[in-house]
């Protein structure tokens, strides 16, 4: 009898999304859920955001307008998910520490 392989949960993806939800709440005042992160992801993937900077081959920064607010999203292209949210003020003070 062959052993069944366990389902991989992709823990880094889960942690990144949890982190993004916490930062959206703390920095932007949004009480978001998973579907809201998917909406932001879709805006970035469809080119409806303004590309700001590529931080590495995996990480990029985009300016997004949603819910009447404009904010910056650090986006992981490999995992196709927002990693964190930063305000324009935070970006103006210098590059954020990840």
Explain what this protein looks like in three dimensions:
- It is a single chain.
- The chain is an alpha+beta fold.
- The protein has one domain (11-93).
- It has three helices and four strands; from the N terminus they run H-H-E-E-E-E-H.
- It has a four-stranded antiparallel sheet.
- A hairpin with a 4-residue loop joins strand 1 (50-54) and strand 2.
- The longest helix is centred in the N-terminal third of the chain and has 18 residues, at 11-28.
Biggest sheet strand order reads 1-2-3-4
**Low-pLDDT runs:** none
* Through-space gap between termini: 46 Å
Care to count the β-strands?
A: 4
Mean pLDDT, to the nearest integer, reads 88
Write the layout of secondary structure elements.
Blueprint lengths: L10 H18 L5 H12 L4 E5 L4 E8 L2 E8 L4 E6 L1 H6 L5
Antiparallel strand pairs: 1-2, 2-3, 3-4
Quick structural overview:
The protein has helices spanning 11-28, 34-45, 88-93, and strands at residues 50-54, 59-66, 69-76, 81-86. The protein is of the alpha+beta class and 98 residues long.
Question: What tags apply to this protein structure?
Answer:
98 residues, 4-stranded antiparallel β-sheet, 3 helices, 37% helix
